[in-house]
Amino acid sequence: MFQGETAITVDDKGRLAIPTAYRELVAETCGNVLVLTYNPFESGCLWLFPLAEWERVRDQVNALPSVKAVHRNLQMKLVGAAARIEPDSAARILLPASQRAAAGIEKKAVLLGMGGKFELWSELAHLAKIRQTISEDEISDEMSGLQL
């Protein structure tokens, strides 16, 4: 289970080091095989899945009927853009240039552990998102039962 927020530096070659706190967990969870793809719901963010979790998501998305444009769009953004990534000996992963550019990830990024996956945000998109508050009229029935 991944959780927590880590400021990340992306080097000139587009690599980032997996934080030390996650290295062992990533190795155990997925044998150091991750899948990077677009977050279809938030701009400025990529999703990074352990392989087994990715395969579950991929199979669900691919099972959607492709006769609907929204399904094809989701399939393109998730499955079509998916890149298999393995950390090197220094625990660095190479982010494809096209995905970095689309998400606006440059030198500074934020890695969020989100349970079964990571979210990799551009620093500016993360800052803008985190500054947004949840208004009272946005609270869902499911949220209203939480005891925070």
From TrEMBL:
The major lineage groups are: Bacteria, Pseudomonadati, Pseudomonadota, Gammaproteobacteria, Lysobacterales
Q: Which Pfam families match?
A: MraZ
**Location of the protein in the cell:** Cytoplasm, Nucleoid
Matches recorded under HAMAP family: MraZ
The protein, known as:
Transcriptional regulator MraZ
Q: Which residues form the SpoVT-AbrB domain?
A: 5-53, 82-125
- What's in the keyword line of the UniProt record? Cytoplasm, DNA-binding, Repeat, Transcription, Transcription regulation
What GO molecular function annotation could you give as one example from this UniProt entry? Answer: DNA-binding transcription factor activity
Question: Can you tell me which family this protein belongs to?
Answer: Belongs to the MraZ family.
NCBIfam families according to UniProt: division/cell wall cluster transcriptional repressor MraZ
The gene it comes from is mraZ
Q: Which GO terms describe its biological process?
A: negative regulation of DNA-templated transcription initiation
Principal place of residence: cytoplasm
Q: What organism, scientifically named, is this protein from? A: Frateuria aurantia (strain ATCC 33424 / DSM 6220 / KCTC 2777 / LMG 1558 / NBRC 3245 / NCIMB 13370) (Acetobacter aurantius)
A GO CC annotation recorded here is: nucleoid
- Subunit text: Forms oligomers.
